[in-house]
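Bench notes, afternoon.
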Amino acid sequence: MKLHALTKAITLATVLSTVSFSAVAADIPLSAVVEADQVTTKVLAVDAANHQVVLEGAEGREVNVQLSDKAKNLGNLKVGDKVTVEVIRSVAAYLDTDVDKGLPGSTERTGEIRATKDDPNPGGEAFRQVQVQLQITKIDVAKNQVTFKGPRGHSKTINVEKPEVQKKLKDLKVGQSVVVTYTDVLKVTTQH
């Protein structure tokens, strides 16, 4: 199953988005973070008709998982099979150098790839990517704080903790936009 390609592509696109945006509009990358976690467990029970699976959780506890009807080939999953769940989360932020570009807003993209019926091991990947445009309404360089207005008109002040981002505060202007892209990738593979 060539599902790992989606994980790599989405994560790489999110992290590199700050670079590609800067090439187009002279935007300034602010930060990029990628976190990943992986758990491998075993199947304790399968109810394919009701799209339910019981997995072995921490300390041997049973974890009941209710799947949607999109999980087509659960009949191939057997007690004792290994299930690996990998979650990758990335956040990338860049400063849009155009002042008064537009109002804050957000967009969302989702996608999935599932194992085919011919694949003996059920699994798949899904991603969700949300891009939020925030407008800078106040900058306090002395306190390392920036106040943003979000898509719903609410304001929020954040403390800028990272020294490399603190150095960039002096270059910010009220009215500029900061675009933050959140990407979550879930990958599930099974093995008999």
